[in-house]
């Protein structure tokens, strides 16, 4: 049974651009307020060594905490995603990340019309493959339509681009990918989780965010400034929070700290 997830002070205000109603006046664009401080039931236990820290000290502490992790095989990811990403409105389906499409759990594979395993932190960014470790870490693996997965490829994340078939509102251009609004924060928190979890002190590369969109095979992922904005604009919702619980309770035994404490993104970066 999933642990009850108690959260207080989740609410934050998001400033919206308002059109001017008087001729000749313009209203400046406003941005989302930084993520508000949160309190969770895990602060006195799981996160005890991180509470009160900031910057590098916070990042180092969180790395130690979330590195206590059970790894699973790449083949086991198929069945895990059927649980972690189950459509809350249809238990026979999974919800596809970028498309927002609800698709039968049984349609997993590599053919057109199937869904497959999307590495949100592109596996070529660090060349970690699909061996147990970053290549099988459920905190950044999500179900996605085969063709949409191919369109995203290994592009960095940024604003802008054009729509495409089954995009669900996501956009892409020659060197970047913009997920639909409802999961922009999810994507940001997955990328930044990977940057904290994998610091190069085991057999895996040191993954870090940067502000580029041409990272290719180096162990970096961008664009950090945009990811921070998305984290503020799209706070964790019930789907993302449930997913964090399932991974923690049933699979890996570790959590994505930026789902529990989105304000830690600004504290570290």
Automatic annotation (TrEMBL):
Give the span(s) annotated as Disordered: 153-177
- Enumerate composition-biased segments (Low complexity): 159-170
Q: What is this protein called?
A: Endonuclease
Q: Which GO terms describe its molecular function?
A: endonuclease activity
Task: Read off the SUPFAM superfamilies from this record.
Answer: His-Me finger endonucleases
**Cytoplasm as UniProt keyword:** no
Instruction: Name the species this protein comes from.
Output: Streptomyces shaanxiensis
What the entry lists under Pfam families is as follows:
Endonuclease_1
From which lineage does this chain's organism come? Bacteria, Bacillati, Actinomycetota, Actinomycetes, Kitasatosporales
Highest taxon of the source?
Bacteria
PANTHER family, sorted: ENDONUCLEASE-1
Q: Which residues form the signal peptide?
A: 1-31
Q: Does the keyword Ribosomal protein apply?
A: no
| Alphabetically ordered keywords of this record | Endonuclease, Hydrolase, Nuclease, Signal
